[in-house]
What we know:
Among the domains are: about 1-115, Tetratricopeptide repeat domain (Serine Threonine Protein Phosphatase 5, Tetratricopeptide repeat); about 190-270, Serine Threonine Protein Phosphatase 5, Tetratricopeptide repeat (Alpha Horseshoe). It has 23 helices and no strands. The protein has helices at about 1-20, 25-45, 50-60, 65-80, 85-95, 100-115, 115-130, 135-145, 150-165, 170-180, 190-195, 200-215, 220-230, 235-250, 250-265, 270-280, 285-305, 310-320, 325-335, 340-355, 360-370, 375-390, 390-405. α10 (about 170-180) packs antiparallel against α11. The longest helix is centred in the first third of the chain and has 20 residues, at about 25-45.
Amino acid sequence: MKFNLTFLFLLFVNITLFAQEPPLPESREGNVVKELFFAGIKEKMAENYANAGTNFTKIIALDAKNDAAYFELATVNYRQNKLLDAETSIKKAIEINPKNVWYLKLQGEIYKRNGNMDALVQVFNQLIQLEPEEDNYYFDKANALFISGKVEESRAVYDDIQKKFGSSKDLILAKQRVTIQSSTTPNNDDINKLLAENPTDVKNMLYLSGILLEKNKKEDAIAMLLKAKALEPDNFEVDLAMADIYQSQKKNELAIVPLKSAFANPQMPIANKIKIVSSMLPRFSNQLVVKDATHLAEIAVKTHPADAKLLLLYGDVLYQQGNLKGAKEQYQAALKISDQLYLAWEKLLGAQTLMGLYTEAIKTGEDALSIYPNQAILYYYRAFALHRNGQNAEAGLEIKSALLLDG
């Protein structure tokens, strides 16, 4: 935490100093902005969001009307789940360029995540004004109204959709879903009617199973998902839905079966696999959780052998079990795929240090610092390894470098 706070402090100081520099000539300033922008995009693509944010913030210090920089800053904050910062930045971008649909779409995603349905409805109103023939905006607006408890307003929007675009299967199903979800207890006739509309529609079955689960009709939901599984055995969304229900019933031995099936499916997003296994790490005092997390990580790595983040995660799973050698190998494998993965460098140094591999750690620290020269923690790791290796003079130099960065 000390390192993170220090980094944020340095970021603030850098921004302040940058803003106090004398104005650059217009052509030079334009070149600086371009360089910062492309550097920020590069860091964002490498998922080094803090570094990306620093570049976009510097652009804004130079050009307070740069809506693209505000948009990118909002994006990296959103990806770090800094929703308030993301909302502030995207509002600035929209204030400068109110007709950019991409800005509005990001604002909508922010409101979806923080649950601000009233604000989300207003975003869809703006999108509808800009692109009135895009029917998805109307459906999304109706859904947001329904979620916020404004059932009649939601129905009115669906009526408007019918008037403007005509009737469709999607509209009929949406109206029926509002009817079902509005009732305290789902009516079997209504559910059967929805199923009869398209008896082989697995997405519809998934939706209905969710409604049944919300109404605490778990066995009926499982029965619905089993029908869906029979229709599409390789549908990972069905597997995940089944696993969720089994877990809610404390039937972990049943939940792991569809989870393994989903993890073996390359169509399941890698981010979802990482999120599930990561959520298990804090519960490693339970040996069953350790066993299941290890199996899932192994399956994920086997399914996506070239994904550096999964290798990093598998390393964490092994590290938590005290398997430092195995963890080290996974961190090294991740860095072979992408040396832009900062956490892998830090964790590799941690593993090497704990294993007493000080010569290796010295070399790793040097390699890491060639990419991340402004990360104080890397100097501390390297200083410790040098000290343990009897190279105290060199260790002292590394400590000085770290202290300079720590302020």
